[in-house]
Amino acid sequence: MPPSSTAPESPVPDAEASDLPPGFVDRFTSRSIPLREGYAELGDQRLHYVEAGEGPLVLLLHGFPEFWYAWREQMAPLAAAGFRVVAPDMRGYNLSSRPPEVTAYGTELLAADIRDLVHERGAESATLVGHDWGGSVAWATAMVHPEVVDRLAILNAAHPRKLSQGLHHPAQLRRSWYFFFFDLPELPEAVVHANGWHFFRHFLRDADPAFTADVADRYVAAWSRPGAATGMINYYRASVRTPPREADAAIRPIQAPTLVIWGDRDRYLGGELAEPEHDDVPHLDHVERIPDASHWVHHDAPDRVTRLLVEFSTTAPAAGTAGATEKASS
């Protein structure tokens, strides 16, 4: 599919200033990489994004309860390595569209956002990197829109079949209690707002080193956007309300070369969920386990994660190439 025409980058509305940093420093070269931002108009949705660098497209998809700034340690090194790196605010988050309806957060719609963002940025395909919910959306995009996915890198996000299987076991059900709490009407929004966003801060408590005051302030600003808390929580509502048979029927083999990076101290996802089944991910490169990292592996081990992403994005053959086919069959 040819790329769609690229919409002009929209100014940030005065009412929702983004406080964009001027740039990030590549930790490996000490080179300062400038940042650019804009808005992608995708039908009835508008996604805010921040980008850096030039070259083949890499999309960085954040999870809950983060926003584009989750990738502050990875953007500059990937850009310095020769990639055009785009980190969007996912639908429902921060400066992107925040529809209030639960039905607006179905997996197929979230995957379509990513497909359309690839084309809006003037590319036919991209390497997708996703953490947590961003990883879930990346899995889905690679299943239903394989033509836009060159490579897939997943950080602490279980393949949907593995997660479905895990939720049949009491240990994973206990870890995933918040899935069902978030399905309640109104109460979750009241709880997450209380005591200076204590609930969301608590979710991030395992990050090591802990967030600085400046970083925490940026997160609070993102959470405080009108409708953002509901948008973020609606990912869980839409997931819980999807019949299991319908979710399982949507699973298709991933054609893209795939890297899984997994922090083994994840308190939300059991380590047994890290390994996808071969039939579901036949082009798995490998699963890289990081024993001393938590669910927030990209924060806990930023240098290691970044090196893995740069190497994978640089050396793994793109989906559909002879190299990818040969590697999968070897």
Describe the protein's architecture and organization.
With about 325 residues, the chain is an alpha/beta fold. It has one domain (about 20-320): 3-Layer(aba) Sandwich (Rossmann fold), CATH 3.40.50. It contains 13 helices and 10 strands. An 8-stranded mixed sheet has the order 3-4-6-5-7-8-9-10, sandwiched between helices. Helix 2 packs across helix 3.
Radius of gyration: 18 Å
How many E-type strands? 10
Per CATH, the class reads: Alpha Beta
Structural class: alpha/beta
In round numbers, the mean pLDDT is: 92
Shape: globular
The name of the CATH superfamily reads Alpha/Beta hydrolase fold, catalytic domain
Q: What fold name stands as the CATH topology?
A: Rossmann fold
**Overall domain count:** 1
Uncertain stretches: 1-15
Main β-sheet description: 8 strands, mixed
Q: Helix coverage percent of residues?
A: 25-40%
Task: For the record, give the distance between the C-alpha atoms at the N and C termini, rounded to a whole number.
Answer: 30 Å
Give the DSSP E fraction (strand runs of 2 or more residues): 15-25%
Task: State the CATH architecture.
Answer: 3-Layer(aba) Sandwich
SSE run? EEEEEHEHEHEHHHHHHHEEHHH
Strand order of the largest sheet: 3-4-6-5-7-8-9-10
